[in-house]
Amino acid sequence: MKKIFTFIILFIVTNTIYTQPINWVDVTGNYSLPQGVKIFMGERINPALKAWYFEVDMNNPSVAIRAYLSDVPGGREGLVPFVQRVGAIAGINGGYFDMQTGASYSAVSYDDNLFSRNISSVVRDGKTYPLTRSFFGIKDTREMSVDWVYHFGNRVIDIHKFDSPIQNQVGTPGQLPSPATGKRYYELMTGIGGGPTLVKNGNVHITYNEEVFWGSGVGLTNRDPRTAVGFTPDNKVIMLVADGRQTASEGVNLNELANIVIDLGCVEAMNLDGGGSTQMALGNQLINRPEGGTFQRPVASILAIVSADSAAFLPPNFLNYKIDTEDDECTIT
Predict the structure, then answer these.
(1) What phi and psi, each to the nearest 5 degrees, are found at residue 226?
(2) What is the pTM (predicted TM-score) of this model?
């Protein structure tokens, strides 16, 4: 009986350490940041973790968020020179891309221009799986959402979003929906693709199989460097990176990542490219240590924090007057 009791106590103590929360510290004062932008650093002892996140208040009229696709030769660049070249305040890495050609596999959109599309399908074991992958979009009214989208053309107006992703499962491709079952993405100002979705309606909702990330190198349960973006009910954007593959920081799996951003208040969130691509820059500084070092893997896209005059959003306080166009008595002139 004594041995059993000792084992139980040891298990409880070990489990308590293992599930300890991340200690977040506001380190905004260490940097030069405009009103509406904060940066936090987080640490956990066991499992070892170092993470950072920007909190961007979209209610502040002086700042905004904007996605960029690299247009340098080769289509890729390190995050710090990328952020500096476009004149951004700060940024994190964006979506997925081809390591050889630099071609983006994830959507990048700004001001009615679609610079790249989410990949439309993948082949696994000789079967073709159509894809509705995740997309973080911000309308010109600063309203935000994480949606499963499909591109039915090469224009922003051809982006359709769906209430649920294509129901792909391992070994069983789903059916591509028609445009009629989705909604056009009207009033989109900027957006970036990635995946899988992590959070919907404030709850963990990871659509890993449906977005067919198995067999892609993006693991579900392994701890890795990760990047995520989400938003809170009070219109604050959370842009997070977690280091991994090092003694000082093991990284996180997708379920952990989802719970972290929920703890930070996100009601919707999605995963971005990770591993060696996971980077955060502020001005000319690399904030995190991708895979333990300062090497910046060249990336194809970024999600940047910019001053409001660099993005054509409407101010936070605007008149939003909607007309019911489904009413037979209503006409628009």
Answers:
(1) -140, 155
(2) 0.89
